[in-house]
Amino acid sequence: MNRLVKGGLVLGGLVLGLGALRRTLNPTPRYAPWEKPPYGEFEKKVLILGGGFGGYTAATDLCRLTRSRDDVGVLVIARDNFFTFWPMVPGIVSSDIDSRNVAQPLRRALILAGASFRRARVTGVDPDRRVVQAAGGLEFPYDQLVISLGGQPNFFGIPGVEEHSLTMRGVEDAERVRNRVIERFEEVSLIRDDVPESKLTFVVIGGGATGVEVASEIHTLVHENLAPDYPNIDPYRVRIYLIEALPNILPELDPALRRAARIRLLNERIEVLTGAMAEEITGDCVKLKGGKEIDTENVIWTAGNRPNQTVHDLGLPYDQRTGIKVDLTLRVEDHSDIWAIGDCAAVQDVHREDGGIVPPTAQAAIQQGHLAARNVLKTIDGNGDLGEFEYKPLGQLVELGSDFAVNEVMGVRFTGALAAVFWRMAYLVRLNSPQSKVRVAADWIVGIFLRPAVTQIRSTSDE
Ligand SMILES: Cc1cc2nc3c(=O)[nH]c(=O)nc-3n(C[C@H](O)[C@H](O)[C@H](O)COP(=O)(O)OP(=O)(O)OC[C@H]3O[C@@H](n4cnc5c(N)ncnc54)[C@H](O)[C@@H]3O)c2cc1C
């Protein structure tokens, strides 16, 4: 009997403990004023366009800074109801990382922070009426507006790029690249005669961090994940090219790290061509300046980034190449209540003597998001002492396969397997969804023992 009571007490304690744990992991949302009646009737509406690195940071910071107030409401409007965790996008190509963990649930994260979210495609801003227009005739009023609509690929007007290459501007793009590789393997495994070289040649154009990572991910996909499933295809028949117009790949990195990356790529038999400018891309060939041609039906374009075209259409002061013109407080020129941050804003880098702008990176967008939140609040409160933006690069991490990375963190440079572990830890802690953190960590651990099962789930856009 005594034992029965003890057992009951232990079981009861366990159930209560698990209930408490569940409640802690699933906190009650702190609904924003926009969500409570009278809906949207409060003093200051802060509208944030874009739920990426810049917009998400600005929104969550503003919510934190106004936690004890109910006169400020934050509403985020974005085209997608997920947050793309860009550093992990190339990992989707090899199936090292599952897409759903890279596309983080944006609505839930914002609601938990105390902001509101509406999925809508922004089409215009009317500064005189202080409204943002969105597709479907929607209008959203604002008192303060923060624009962080990101970037898009820049094709530099090179003939054939847009028609014949795959881009890397999102989770779907990465899936498309993976599907293309699998598609070619399936096609080639059916061909009995000579296989055209163009089928198994993959050309990645752009030797920046994204291009280097994508070329490595294709190598991993081919050699580690697909080769055992396609015994009739010799993986060494697959050729992977990395093409860069500048004299070096990873130009923003220290020369020693660049060398380490290049040696790694050569060891993986990735053919690196530097000082090579793509002049034209056709359905089965990349033509380089100087006359060299590479037969390929598979081109991946990572060579250029420019501000989102939507921003161009907003009618704000804008430079086609660099983005919305802002001052150092991140305020849009001639607009006291509009701010722009991230890849779509031309923010001057005060440390550059040539007057150049801050590079389009996640860390810059996050730092700008923090400052924009503080400056918006100061403006609302009539405290004119606005902060000015000073970019503080923390370093760069580039992963080349699951067991090698080249990292520079606050001036410290390191490469190899430990650098790859650091890459994984650094980005794992930055994922904002607890579920994704657990799943990504579990996938990586399982991946040490079992190679990922790679399947091709086709959508109509892959046809
Ligand atoms: C493949 C890849 C890998 C990268 N890896 C790294 C890395 O490792 N480290 C690093 O520092 N940087 C990296 N970057 C760069 C980094 O991702 C960007 O600099 C950063 O995301 C910029 O933040 P943002 O807020 O300006 O834009 P984003 O994060 O791109 O967010 C843009 C937001 O705007 C929304 N949006 C766009 N158009 C509309 C519209 N018309 N209406 C409504 N909403 C719209 C989108 O849905 C999204 O929510 C990478 C970029 C790519 C493409």
UniProtKB/TrEMBL annotation:
User: What PANTHER family has UniProt attached to this entry?
Assistant: 64 KDA MITOCHONDRIAL NADH DEHYDROGENASE (EUROFUNG), APOPTOSIS-INDUCING FACTOR 1
Q: Which protein are we looking at?
A: NADH dehydrogenase
Identify the EC number(s).
1.6.99.3
- Family note: Belongs to the NADH dehydrogenase family.
Q: Which InterPro entries match?
A: FAD/NAD-bd_sf (IPR036188), FAD/NAD-binding_dom (IPR023753), NADH-Q_oxidoreductase (IPR051169)
The UniProt GO MF terms for this protein read: NAD(P)H dehydrogenase (quinone) activity
Cofactor(s) in the UniProt record: FAD
Which residues does the UniProt record annotate as the domain FAD/NAD(P)-binding? 44-369
Matches recorded under Pfam families = Pyr_redox_2 (PF07992)
What's a GO biological-process term for it? aerobic electron transport chain
Top-level EC class, please? oxidoreductase
Sorted alphabetically, the keyword list is: FAD, Flavoprotein, Oxidoreductase
